[in-house]
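Technical annex B. To support the medicinal chemistry partners, we prepared a structural model of the target in complex with pyridoxal-5'-phosphate, based solely on the information shown next.
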Amino acid sequence: MQQPTDLSFKLKQRVAKKLAVLDAKSLIRELPSEFVKSETQHSLASNDYLGLSQCKPLQKILSNLDIPYGFGSSRMLAGDDKGLSQVEIALSHVKQSEFSFLFPTGYQANIGLCQALSNIKESSLKDTAWIVDQKMHMSVRDGMMASGVSKKSIYRVDTCDFEQVEKIFEELSSSHKILMTESIFSMSGKRAPIDSLLKLCERNGDLLVVDEAHSIGCFGKRGEGLVSHDYHPLLITVNPCGKAVSLQGAFVSGPSWFRDVILNYSRSFIYSTGISPFMAKAIETTFEWIKENQSHLKSLSDVTRYFHDRCNLHYFGKDHIVYIPFQNTDLASQAKDKLRACGFETPLIRFPTVSINEPGLRVSLRGDMNQEFLDELIRVFNDCKI
Ligand SMILES: Cc1ncc(COP(=O)(O)O)c(C=O)c1O
């Protein structure tokens, strides 16, 4: 019954109705309770692929950086900060690109990138075809919406299937095309065939955009990821630093002609406080650390090989992301409980993060997993009939 003193009663009722619909579909979200770390309980959720958040010598260097934490305004208002620009030059060296721009998060970077891309048009957005992987991160999907890209201009494809992409390029030969993919897909662990996709774009001067969230820091001598530009004029990358780089923020790298497009049309850059100078310097320092301490990259590649050579479960992914698919969310949830009982906590992935018929469990392998840990993980996966 309505409490006269509860002014929010009607609102709460509406919200309860909405949430009940999600609950009925097993789609309700809760912030997971803090995972209790112990000798016998292990989380497989962290994307700290190189284990850098636990690397004491690096953490000590970062905590001694004498740099301001806050920026205090948009970079467009306060005038630019030399420190930030210098970090961006260093990041361009990492990616072999002509420019890099730092954003406070990868989500914001993708929103701003779509806003910029949607402005490379003749007179209307309609002359551009957006060929976007069907598993692309939500920030790109939200970015296209925020940029007014019409659904009719968006073609969802599996970019890991080159023939499918080539076919659609032929069908749309007259339009200006933007092809968007991830180098390693967050929710399948698959790699996109970047070199072939880039060659396809070169045929007609179309753009390739690659989100390197799950490969930046993990590959290449400089930790550059799977895509190093070599100053390519048609290639743009988004490089979120919250995963292997183990910090926060992201940088977009690309050819110089695109720099002014971001500066003039990326509303998430223009109308947002600049990234913390401290965080920016920490990102640069971490890339230097990765370059000078190649053992982190080697450990991750050793762990990955060890796991794939021994695990017999049906899953996707050949790198450090392993995705175990299920027919429905309830089955995935049961498997999650079984693994929890064996001491492993695995995130349950479901709609709308993935399509409704592709729920699954996602496992991140990390370079700091030792052999004993891996043997136990592989034993549980092989024995536990999930
Ligand atoms: C592929 C991809 N792009 C972008 C992002 C967003 O990055 P951030 O966490 O820095 O906002 C993520 C994060 O989950 C991601 O997986």
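Notes passed to the chemistry partners:
The domain at 68-292 is CATH 3.40.640.10 (Aspartate Aminotransferase; domain 2).
Residues 105-107, 110, 137, 139, 182, 186, 211, 213, 240, 242, 250 surround pyridoxal-5'-phosphate (CB under 6 Å).
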